[in-house]
Structure formats: structure tokens, C-alpha cells
């Protein structure tokens, strides 16, 4: 997996710091998220209304087609996204419409959404997740609604708020930030990721929520950057890549064409990384430590849970599968002996 | 007594001009004994507390209260049983003023009798709207309860009783205070004329005129004096039978309420929306955020009827459609809310299908929460995260359960608005006719306008105020 990132890209991206986030920097591959840009533009109400009519028509015409082709967004979802796009891009003051992007860009963004199937979250550069607004962009997985529940599972653990936590494969930093916000004085989160894109974006999100003292981002694969806290961790969370390789080509265009394979592809059965995590958890966690992993659902959860309570029965106890709100066995949780 | 009234007024009504008036008074009335004046000052300085009722500073114990008129004893006590009729020094009461039938002239006519008559009439109307008699009886009941020694054995009940008692008390005090102010100004005006004090006379006239204007505002406020009137609310609209045509009508109504709420500066958010197959909505819930949103919107509860040439009918026939509207208050006081047990809830992803998780990119994270014991459910799909959808659905569910609880307690004392399931499709409250003639008519009040477009664009205040005042003003027995 490490070899998937060409060295040149690594060097290029390493040069992009959080400071480069300001629009003044000349060489930046990603524009800042819409909602964080200044209100530098304005538009006549009639022009904005024309955009809205055009975008609505496109959504209504193309939505049903996208939905039936590969389970993409339907018309009603696109219309909701359109209202959020305008919510992020515009602001009304004294009857004047101020904008964070000019109308040309809005037309372009909506075309990208529908024609290129660019995920809405990449279009606007953010994802609302739990009570957070997380910056996201190409190269990091868009946090899923299901994953929100992992934070609730963590918060049920006794003494979680003063513990040392690790979020493995943090991506946008969603889990790390949400857990970090709930911690008290002694609590810390270590967030690791192999992808430098993820390290950068997670850094932005940690910074935005003022959690630099609580959340430490470390670059590297899974447990590699955590050798210094081995056997001391109160708990582990992870939403590792779990989609079986053979499913990748059939994914909905938003996911398959735009999101990083590194964050999706879990190997032949989808369990390569999950199994690695289980194995390493036995030594990374302190005795009594807690883990919660997201899986591909049902069969995969059962397989992992079964594995941990049989093959590694002497390492773990109280291993359970937990349902998501759609009634799918989405998570595996348990404790180290 | 007259002297005391003047002093009181000059010290209380007009903090900015306090000194000059006081000086004028001293110069024109040499008869007042100075020591008494200073102790009066101590007792009579007063301010208005945040509820608009009057509180006194100083040590009342220094004076013999029996020298004061009965209303003063009322102010010094908090017991309902001691409320008694306020009068001027020559025995004129508010009802007395109305009974005299003085002509009510234009505000600009500087006639004190006209001002006084207008104000007295407003006070009567305010009392009627507040259901004064019922209020007094209730206050007396509550006072008895509140004096029981074992009251606080049940702290929840005690809290509710003392809150209600306090609320009624401050509402009644406010009106009583207003009434008292009127009578004092009359006293003062008469005195000023006796003494030929023109400054004082014009001061009093100005004060009466101000009161006359305030009285109009208070009349309006009194329309919204119900328990939950000041709350924000949810407005729910459900399409009646008749397919697309009535779903379109339901969507028009939702739009009408959105625009009405925006005109009023209320925050509006769509919480839940079930779109129709072709057009419109099957059902929608919007949240209206702001002071008195419920007080106004509750006038809209019921079935609304539309008559028009249907745009969905290729034969261009006239259609009649119905949609039901329910309004639920969002109760602010946490302690009076229905207690929901976490274990009674079933939370599920709404309209979820397929593998979920990393397989799917979707911005839809609708959640449905069902309260298992009652079967009541709430859905929210318009928030940008599942967490927020859940919180939003939870607040709708909470309010629906509160409403159910209120309905249960309705026979005791509270009033409640009907939920969608309680509304009977049999009678409609308002008719919107676009063809063959154009008119919107409220069947409860007979209020009508001939411009349906403006109504559908949210100009509802005429209908709302007419309904509120007619429902409170018609019943003579309530005073």
C-alpha cells in the first residue's frame, strides 16, 4: 500500500502546509472550501434565480437517470444539495446577495456534480458530520453517516474522557476530532494515516476545532507511528478500507471515480486491514482497553467478531457486533483481556 | 390623598423629569408637611419589574396602611383574595368610566374624558381576553394549594403550581397596575384643574394619551396570553384525499406559512417533507422559531379548502381539494415536558437501502425515531448530518408527545391544539376560491378577502387576529 503513492507526489504535497490554505497562494491544487471563503462577489437576484432554475432543471432531469444507473443521487437529493450549495456560497445582507464564489463558478460546480458525478462534499469542500463541519477534498474519504455512531460507542466506555485513544486511518480526522472534543484534561487522541493528503486535511480540521493540544496526527501505516504508546492505549477506533477488491469497479460513480482507493479497497475479502488491526490491537491496547471497528456489514462483522472471540479468545472478551441505524451489523466492539 | 397621588406619580411615571415636577409641586402647594413627604418618598418610590408589575422599595411599615386606599393594600400583599376594585379619589372605577358612555374622540382631540373612556374600554377588553374571572378563580385555587404545608412533598407538582401562580399573579398585577395608573392620572388632572396648574395638566394629558396608545398594544398582547402562546412551534400540513391536486394544495399551504413566518421575522426550517409522486407534498413539518409563533399559528389549525381549475387536469375542470394543518408548540420549560425513556425509542435510518458504509456516497441521512409505547414517530431528512437529523427528529417527537400529554391533561386545565390525527376532515375552517370568483373566507369568523394571491403569499394576519379576537371576545361569560 505504501508504494501506491509516487515519491514525487509525496514531496509535492508535503510542501503544502496549512498556511497554503489562504487563497493568496499561487500554486495550490485545491481551492479552499466554499463556506470558508470571503464574501468577495455579489450577484443580482435575477441572475441567481436564473442559476437556481437551471440547476433545478438539471437536477430534475438527470437525477432519476443517475439514481437508476448505479444508485447515484436522485432528484430530491440533488435538490437538497443545491440548497446547501447556495447556503454555503451565498449570504444575504440588506437585500443584497453576497457570494463566496462567482456565478460562473457555481455553474461549473453544478456541472461537475452532475456530469462528472463529483461527490457533493468535494464540490463544496466540506462534510457536515455529527455536529461538526469538516473540511474534505479529493484524496480523503468523505466520512459516512454510519461512522458517526462510533463516537457514541466510544463515549459509553467508562473513563473514556481521560484516556489515550487512537484513530487508525483517520482520513479527514472526523473520528479523532469528534472524540478529541469530548475528552477532558488528560485525554488524548493519536490519529494516524498513511496518506499525506489525509494528514494534511486532518490537520486542518484539528486546527479548526482548536484541538492541537488534544489530537496528534502522525503519518504512517496503522500502528507504525504508535510504537511509543504501545500497550498504553485506552481505546482504538478505525474505519479501515473494507470493500472487497472485486466490488470496487461496480461502485457508484461518486465513490468509485472520485474517492481514494487507498481508503476503500480492503483486499480480496475486504478484510485484509481489519484482520491486521485485530491482530495488532492485542498488543497496542492496555489491558481492559476497548476497540470499535467499522466493517462492510453483517457477514464481515460476524467473521471478524468470530475470529476475535475464537482465534484470539485469550486476548479479547465481550466481543460484539453493533447495528447501525439501517439495521446492518456495522461495527465490531470488544475489550482486551 | 390627592397630594399623595401626585407625589407618587411624579416619582414613578417620569423618572427623567422627576425633579422639576417635584419642585413645581412644592412651590404651588405650601400646605404639605415636609417630614411626611420624606417618608412618603421612601415608601412610594417604585419601579417596574421585568414582568411589568409594580414593586415598591422602602419600608412600608413606617406608615399606617389603613390610611391608604384599598388597592394599595392589594399591592402590598400577594394574595388573590385581597384583590379589590380600584377607584379614583371620588370613587370612579374603570367600569364606572365605561358606563358613563363618554364619547371616544380622535386621539388628537385633547379631551381627557375621551382618552379615559378609550383606555377604560381597552382595559375591559383586555380583561375579557385574559378571561379575568376564570383567572381570578384559578389564582384563588392556586393560592390555596400553594399554602398547603405538604406542597413541596411533590417538587414537580409544587414547581408547576408555583410557576402558574407566579405567571397569573404577574399578568393580573400588570393589568391592575395599568388600571391604577389610569385612575391616578384622572385624579391628578382634576387636581391640576382645581389648582389651575397648567404644567401639571398638560403632563397628565400627555400621560393619558400615552396610556391610550399603550392600551392598544396591550389589547393585542392579551390575545396571546395562553400558556404556550409565546413558544416557537411546528406547523404540519397533510394533503387530503384527491392525489396530486391536493398534494399540490398542501405544498401551497406550506409555502404560505413559510412566507408568513418570514414576514414576521421568524426562523423557518423544513424538518420533514414527504414529496408527492407527481407534484406537491403528501405531508410536511416546518419549524417556526420565534416569540409568539405558536400563539399566532394556532389560529390556523384545521382543514383548509381550495377551489380552482386544476393545472393537473387536462380537461380543465374545477377541483376542490383539502389539506389539514396542525400546530404544535415547542415547550421551552423542560420540567413540564413529557419524559421520554431512551429504551422506549427505536431509531432507524429512513429510506436506507443497499450496503451503506463506504460503498455509498450520499448526502441523505434521514432518521426516523419511533416512540414504541405510543407508536408516535418523527422523521427528519433535511439536516446535513445524521446527528442533526436525529436531534431534529427527536425535537419533533418530543413536541408530539408533549402535545399528546397536553391533550390528556386538557380536561384539567390546559388547552391544547389538535394534532393531525385528531382533526376531522368533515368541516373546513377556511375556503380559498380561485375560480369562478376569487375570495378567501374564514368560516369561523366570516372574515374574508378578495385577493387570494396575497393570502397565499403569507398575508394571513387579518385571518389570524380576527380568529384570535373573535374566539376570545365573543364569550361574554368569560369576563
UniProtKB/TrEMBL annotation, chain A:
Record keyword Glycoprotein present: no
Keyword vocabulary terms for this entry: Methyltransferase, S-adenosyl-L-methionine, Transferase
GO annotation terms (biological process): methylation
MF annotations from Gene Ontology: nucleic acid binding; protein methyltransferase activity; S-adenosylmethionine-dependent methyltransferase activity
InterPro entries (UniProt xref): DNA_methylase_N6_adenine_CS (IPR002052), HemK-like (IPR004556), RF_glutamine_MTase_cyano (IPR052663), SAM-dependent_MTases_sf (IPR029063), Small_mtfrase_dom (IPR007848)
Signal peptide bounds: none
Domain Methyltransferase small: 150-242
Name the record gives this protein: Methyltransferase small domain-containing protein
Species this chain originates from: Dioscorea zingiberensis
Phylogenetic placement of the source organism: Eukaryota, Viridiplantae, Streptophyta, Embryophyta, Tracheophyta
From TrEMBL, chain B:
InterPro entries: PCRF, Pep_chain_release_fac_I, Pep_chain_release_fac_I_sf, PrfB
Highest taxon, organism lineage: Eukaryota
Key words of the record: Protein biosynthesis
One of the record's GO molecular function terms: translation release factor activity, codon specific
Gene3D superfamilies named among the record's database cross-references: 3.30.160.20, 3.30.70.1660, Release factor (1.20.58.410)
Domain (Prokaryotic-type class I peptide chain release factors) ranges: 351-367
An example Gene Ontology CC term for this record: cytoplasm
KW Protein biosynthesis (keyword) present: yes
Entry-linked Pfam families: PCRF (PF03462), RF-1 (PF00472)
Similarity field: Belongs to the prokaryotic/mitochondrial release factor family.
The protein, known as: Prokaryotic-type class I peptide chain release factors domain-containing protein
Organism: Dioscorea zingiberensis
Amino acid at each position: 500500500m505504501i508504494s501506491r503513492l509516487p515519491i514525487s507526489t509525496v514531496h509535492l504535497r508535503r510542501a503544502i502546509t496549512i498556511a497554503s490554505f489562504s487563497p493568496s497562494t499561487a500554486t495550490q491544487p485545491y481551492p479552499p472550501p466554499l463556506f470558508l471563503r470571503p464574501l468577495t462577489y455579489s450577484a443580482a437576484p435575477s441572475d441567481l434565480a436564473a442559476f437556481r432554475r437551471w440547476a433545478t432543471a438539471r437536477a430534475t432531469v438527470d437525477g432519476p437517470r443517475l439514481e437508476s444507473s448505479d444508485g447515484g443521487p436522485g432528484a430530491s437529493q440533488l435538490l437538497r444539495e443545491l440548497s446547501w450549495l447556495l447556503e454555503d456560497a451565498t449570504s444575504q445582507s440588506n437585500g443584497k446577495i453576497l457570494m463566496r464564489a462567482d456565478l460562473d463558478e457555481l455553474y461549473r460546480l453544478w456541472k461537475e456534480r452532475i456530469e462528472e458525478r463529483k461527490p457533493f462534499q468535494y464540490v463544496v469542500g466540506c462534510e457536515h458530520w455529527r455536529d461538526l463541519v469538516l473540511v474534505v477534498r479529493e484524496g480523503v474519504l468523505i466520512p459516512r453517516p454510519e461512522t458517526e455512531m462510533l463516537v457514541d460507542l466510544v463515549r459509553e466506555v467508562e473513563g473514556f474522557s481521560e484516556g489515550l485513544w487512537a484513530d487508525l486511518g483517520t482520513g479527514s480526522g472526523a473520528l479523532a476530532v469528534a472524540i478529541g472534543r469530548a475528552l477532558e484534561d488528560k485525554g488524548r487522541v493519536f490519529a494516524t494515516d498513511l496518506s499525506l493528503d489525509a494528514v494534511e486535511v486532518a490537520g486542518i480540521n484539528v486546527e479548526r476545532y482548536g484541538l492541537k493540544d488534544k489530537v496528534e496526527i502522525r503519518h504512517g501505516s496503522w500502528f507504525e507511528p504508535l510504537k511509543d504508546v504501545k500497550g498504553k492505549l485506552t481505546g482504538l477506533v478505525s474505519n479501515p478500507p473494507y470493500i472487497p477488491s472485486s466490488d470496487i469497479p461496480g461502485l457508484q460513480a461518486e465513490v468509485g471515480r472520485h474517492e481514494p482507493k487507498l481508503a476503500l479497497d480492503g483486499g480480496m475479502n475486504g478484510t485484509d486491514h481489519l484482520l491486521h488491526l485485530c491482530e495488532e490491537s492485542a498488543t497496542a491496547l492496555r489491558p481492559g482497553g476497548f476497540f470499535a471497528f467499522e466493517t462492510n456489514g453483517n457477514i464481515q462483522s460476524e467473521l471478524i467478531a468470530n475470529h476475535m472471540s475464537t482465534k484470539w479468545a485469550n486476548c479479547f472478551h465481550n466481543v460484539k457486533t453493533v447495528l447501525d441505524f439501517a439495521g446492518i451489523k456495522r461495527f465490531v466492539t470488544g475489550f482486551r483481556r | 390623598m390627592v397630594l399623595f397621588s401626585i407625589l407618587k406619580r411624579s416619582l414613578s411615571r417620569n423618572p427623567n423629569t422627576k425633579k422639576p415636577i417635584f419642585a413645581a409641586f412644592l412651590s404651588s402647594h405650601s400646605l404639605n408637611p415636609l417630614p411626611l413627604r420624606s417618608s412618603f418618598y421612601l415608601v412610594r418610590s417604585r419601579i417596574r419589574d421585568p414582568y411589568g408589575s409594580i414593586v415598591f422599595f422602602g419600608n412600608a411599615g413606617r406608615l399606617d396602611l389603613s390610611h391608604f386606599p384599598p388597592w394599595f393594600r392589594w399591592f402590598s400583599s400577594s394574595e388573590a383574595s385581597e384583590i379589590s376594585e380600584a377607584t379614583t379619589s371620588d370613587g370612579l372605577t374603570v367600569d364606572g368610566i365605561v358606563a358613563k358612555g363618554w364619547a371616544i374622540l380622535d386621539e388628537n382631540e385633547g379631551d381627557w374624558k375621551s382618552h379615559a373612556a378609550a383606555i377604560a374600554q381597552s382595559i375591559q377588553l383586555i380583561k375579557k381576553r385574559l378571561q379575568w374571572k376564570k383567572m381570578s378563580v384559578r389564582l384563588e385555587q392556586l393560592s390555596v394549594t400553594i399554602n398547603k404545608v405538604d406542597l413541596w412533598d411533590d417538587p414537580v407538582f409544587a414547581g408547576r403550581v408555583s410557576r402558574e401562580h407566579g405567571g397569573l399573579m404577574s399578568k393580573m398585577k400588570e393589568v391592575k397596575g395599568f388600571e391604577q395608573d389610569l385612575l391616578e392620572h384622572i385624579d391628578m388632572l382634576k387636581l391640576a384643574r382645581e389648582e389651575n396648574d397648567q404644567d401639571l395638566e398638560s403632563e397628565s394629558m400627555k400621560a393619558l394619551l400615552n396610556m391610550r396608545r399603550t392600551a392598544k398594544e396591550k389589547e393585542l398582547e392579551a390575545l396571546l396570553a395562553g400558556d404556550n402562546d409565546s413558544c416557537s412551534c411546528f406547523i404540519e400540513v397533510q394533503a387530503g384525499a384527491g392525489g396530486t391536486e391536493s398534494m399540490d394544495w398542501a405544498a401551497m399551504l406550506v409555502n404560505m406559512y413559510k412566507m408568513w413566518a418570514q414576514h414576521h421575522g421568524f426562523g423557518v426550517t423544513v424538518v420533514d417533507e414527504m414529496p408527492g409522486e407527481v407534484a406537491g407534498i403528501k405531508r410536511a413539518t416546518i419549524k417556526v422559531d420565534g416569540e409568539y409563533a405558536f400563539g399566532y399559528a394556532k389560529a390556523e389549525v384545521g382543514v383548509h379548502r381550495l377551489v380552482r381549475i386544476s393545472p393537473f387536469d387536462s380537461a380543465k375542470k374545477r377541483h376542490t381539494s383539502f389539506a389539514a394543518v396542525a400546530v404544535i408548540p415547542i415547550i421551552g420549560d423542560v420540567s413540564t415536558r413529557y419524559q421520554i425513556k431512551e429504551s422506549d425509542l427505536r431509531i432507524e435510518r429512513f429510506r436506507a437501502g443497499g450496503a451503506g458504509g463506504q460503498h455509498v456516497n450520499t448526502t441523505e441521512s434521514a432518521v426516523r425515531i419511533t416512540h414504541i409505547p405510543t407508536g408516535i414517530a418523527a422523521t427528519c431528512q433535511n439536516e446535513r448530518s445524521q446527528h442533526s437529523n436525529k436531534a431534529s427528529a427527536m425535537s419533533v417527537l418530543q413536541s408530539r408527545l408533549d402535545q399528546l400529554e397536553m391533550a390528556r391533561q386538557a380536561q384539567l386545565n390546559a388547552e391544547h391544539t389538535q394534532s393531525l390525527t385528531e382533526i376531522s376532515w368533515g368541516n373546513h375552517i377556511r375556503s380559498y376560491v380561485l375560480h369562478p370568483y376569487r375570495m378567501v373566507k374564514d368560516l369561523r369568523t366570516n372574515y374574508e378577502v378578495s385577493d387570494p394571491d396575497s393570502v397565499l403569499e403569507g398575508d394571513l394576519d387579518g385571518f389570524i387576529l380576527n380568529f384570535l379576537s373573535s374566539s376570545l371576545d365573543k364569550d361574554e361569560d368569560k369576563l
